[in-house]
Amino acid sequence: GLLKQPSKQTDVDVAWVPEPELQTNAFKVTALLRKSGLRVEQSLGPAKLGKQFEEAQKKSARFVVVCGSNELEKNIVVIKDMSTGDQKEVALSEIEQSIKGSLPSL
């Protein structure tokens, strides 16, 4: 029989406020989520958050993780569910569980 093709939909898009130290933090978050098996993308160049959200929507990303300076100070990220518009603050140590718990078949 035919094998079912895996979904190419992006699970998570990591957005960051365009400041150098925040880009480094965003890279760490991206690597952490990829290591856990999620399909993750991230803007490599500095862009306004609104533009990054538009790109995430074009990619059909299910979630956007926002890395900003306020979040970095508190050791958290903001996770926005792109299908519902809901967003919540999550500790960096709980980011994988929070996203995986909201995705089907993971």
Top keywords for this entry?
106 residues; alpha/beta
Radius of gyration: 14 Å
Estimated share of beta-strand residues:
15-25%
N to C succession of SSEs: EHEHEHEEH
Sum up the overall morphology in one term: globular
Largest sheet strand order: 2-1-3-4-5
- Assembly context of the chains: single chain
**Number of DSSP helices?**
4
N- to C-terminal distance = 24 Å
Secondary structure: helix percent: 25-40%
Number of strands: 5
Largest sheet: 5 strands, mixed
Task: Assign the structural class, choosing from mainly alpha, mainly beta, alpha/beta, alpha+beta, or little secondary structure.
Answer: alpha/beta
Walk me through this protein's architecture.
The chain has 106 residues and is α/β, with parallel strands linked by helices. Helix 1 links the parallel strand 1 (12-16) and strand 2 (40-42). The protein has helices spanning 20-35, 49-58, 69-74, 95-100; strands at residues 12-16, 40-42, 63-67, 76-81, 87-91. It is globular and about 35 Å long. It starts with 11 loop residues before the first strand and ends in a 6-residue tail after the last helix.
